[in-house]
Design a protein that fits this description.
Keywords: DNA-directed DNA polymerase, Nucleotidyltransferase, Transferase. It contains 15 helices and five strands. The protein is of the alpha/beta class. Helix 1 packs parallel to helix 2 (about 40-50) and helix 12 packs antiparallel against helix 14 (about 275-295).
């Protein structure tokens, strides 16, 4: 039985059929949001390839039991590391060494590159050499959130699969199956932009932080107080929340249905009264700041906190 949620099973079935026919390419590139199950799909396909039974994945063969125990010697997982969260060339060289080793279980070998779009130029070029000369019975699964951030030469040597996003009904059903209280489903999915795996993972601190940010941005008009509050928040979480508000307000301006937590709707209703051009400029600023924070670990937090506070207040809510 396929353990994946229903919106991922059509894609997994396609790969299963290709594998059964002996036509599976040596490099699969999965494109999608982690919160929609990108990593769950990558892990499942790796298990599928390593299983040694006819009806894969069987869950009972030696290979499957090693996978369950997390000690399969023929599986390698590479993830971004360090403050910069990139996949470095030394990690890709580790992939090269692994590819040339003999499979200890006598079957296939699988390499998962989690966050493959976080490779730098040197690591991407090192991987390219391996993609050009794939080893027999060795399969690479690249998991990426963005296709555009991968080198065209890397993309062209992979079979690309794009994940479907779940419908609201599918996502809500998944949350219910994970034990999320029905009264929290809408709130959590709004926070996660409809991504169910991410919505399930929110802890109480994240929910409370979200509500504090709603309340503060809705009422606070003092520049110094708002800047001080921003300075205390988790940057990526706050910027994502601001972006959600702006995008929701823009959709409202075009009479598009918007799913929001009840706590956020009054703020977004007011934000939708702001001129669209001003909202787009603020949106561009949020995206620019998000990118800067991702690429510059030493960005002055007090400076950008004050700048963000000033730009928010300039919207004249």
């Amino acid at each position: 039985m396929n353990p994946l949620p229903e919106w991922l099973t059509p894609l997994s079935h396609r790969v299963e059929q290709i594998l059964a026919q002996g036509r599976l390419p040596h490099a699969l590139l999965l494109i999608g949001r982690p919160g929609d199950g990108l990593h769950e799909l990558g892990r499942y396909l790796g298990d599928l390839i390593l299983c040694q039974a006819d009806n894969r994945p069987c869950g009972q063969c030696k290979s499957c039991l090693l996978l369950k125990a997390g000690v399969h010697p023929d599986r390698l997982t590479i993830e971004p590391e360090g403050k910069s969260e990139v996949i470095k060339v030394a990690q890709v060289r580790e992939v090269g060494h692994f590819m040339h080793e003999t499979a200890q279980q006598g079957g296939n070998k699988v390499i998962r590159l989690v966050g493959a779009d976080r490779m730098n130029i040197a690591s991407a070029n090192a991987l390219l050499k391996m993609l050009e000369e794939p080893n027999r019975d060795t399969y690479l699964i690249l998991e990426a959130g963005s296709l555009s951030r991968l080198l065209p030469t890397v993309r062209s040597r992979c079979r690309i699969y794009k994940l479907d996003r779940p419908t609201f009904e599918q996502a809500a059903s998944y949350l219910g199956g994970q034990g999320v209280d029905a009264t929290e489903v809408n709130h959590r999915l709004s926070m996660a932009e409809g991504a169910p795996m991410e919505a399930v993972a929110f802890d109480q601190d994240a929910l409370e932080s979200w509500n504090r940010q709603v309340a503060t941005f809705q009422r606070e008009r003092d520049f110094s107080a708002l800047a001080a509050f921003i300075h205390q928040q988790i940057p990526q979480r706050l910027l994502r929340q601001l972006l959600l508000w702006v995008d929701a307000a823009l959709r409202m301006q075009h009479n598009t249905e918007v799913i929001l937590p009840d706590t956020d709707r009054p703020l977004v209703d007011r934000l939708s009264q702001v001129e669209g051009a001003s909202l787009f400029r603020f949106r561009d600023y949020i995206l620019e700041l998000t990118g800067s924070l991702q690429n510059q670990a030493n960005l002055n937090q007090q400076m950008w906190s004050e700048q963000l506070a000033a730009r928010w207040l300039e919207l004249q809510l």
